[in-house]
Amino acid sequence: MSTPAPAAARASAAAPQRRPRRQSRYLFLLPALVFLALFSVYPLVQLVRMSLSDVTASTLNTAWPFIGLENFQQGLASGQTGDALTRTAVFVLVVTVVGMVLGLAGAIALRTRGRWSNVLLAVMVFAWALPPVVNGSVWKFLFADAGLLNVAARAVGLTDTALPFLYDQYWALGAVAFVNSWAVIPFNALVFRAALLNIEPEVFEAAALDGASRWQEVRHIMVPSVRPTMLVLLVLTIVYGFRSFDFIYVMTYGGPGTATNTLPFLGYLQAFSRFDFGLGASTSVVAVLVVLVLAVLYARSISKEEKE
């Protein structure tokens, strides 16, 4: 009959010790929260405030006149925001499809051990580690009239004139999107490879005994095994394609005309080339909202994968 009293006393004595520990954990989070508030939350608040104001080069350093949603209405009425959204959707689609398919193909090639797998892994890491400015400049030379791709196309009789990779309004968007895909393939391949290496070798041995072909191994063993990773990587690749800026800046600067003006790049041009900071901020707010939706999807995918 006397046992509950000591147990209650121990519980009451432990409670004050847990509370300081919990408070000390919050203290460790404080620097990160302050950093995020200063360098993420505050700039975003200023961006939204600017998008609702008439901010140009003449009013940038004065009080910003509040104009409500006029900047958003102006962007939609001119057609610039809608056209940029369409181009961004096409751009993201190319980057996502090419990046995911070739990333998985690269991971399957790298799963086996050998000299050529090591060479391919080294080439992929090298391509992934190159700065976007260098990578974009190299591809700009390859796509030039006298570049390697046009020389090869003429040599095999594919064309008599130079292919306008970066000078045609339809070719340019696809060419820049392909180069963005080229940059994301190594990252996707390395992540897929890590997932493939978790498959037990006995699974492949059993499949071999059953007479499964290579394609059947890919379809019935590898793809189902990497499906959780694939969902997370899909969201990351979409985010990467959506926020791409550096390759467009280096290779086409949004041209020819507006052919490669995706949403992030249009916001940059409006703010820092035309000095209409309010209009540029409204375009950037639309881009931030899309990224926010993708971030929520990514967080939900991670949470679902952890529960499984």
Automatic annotation (TrEMBL):
The cross-references to CDD domains, in alphabetical order and at most eight, read: TM_PBP2
Q: Membrane-crossing residues? A: 26-45, 89-109, 116-134, 170-192, 231-255, 275-299
Q: How does it sit in the membrane?
A: Multi-pass membrane protein
Q: Which Gene3D superfamilies match?
A: MetI-like
- Record PROSITE patterns: ABC_TM1
Extract one GO cellular component term from the record: plasma membrane
Q: Pfam families under this entry? A: BPD_transp_1
User: Where found, per UniProt?
Assistant: Cell membrane
Q: Does the keyword S-adenosyl-L-methionine apply?
A: no
UniProt keyword list: Cell membrane, Membrane, Transmembrane, Transmembrane helix, Transport
Q: What's the family?
A: Belongs to the binding-protein-dependent transport system permease family.
Protein name per Swiss-Prot or TrEMBL: Carbohydrate ABC transporter membrane protein 1 (CUT1 family)
Q: Which organism is it from?
A: Georgenia muralis
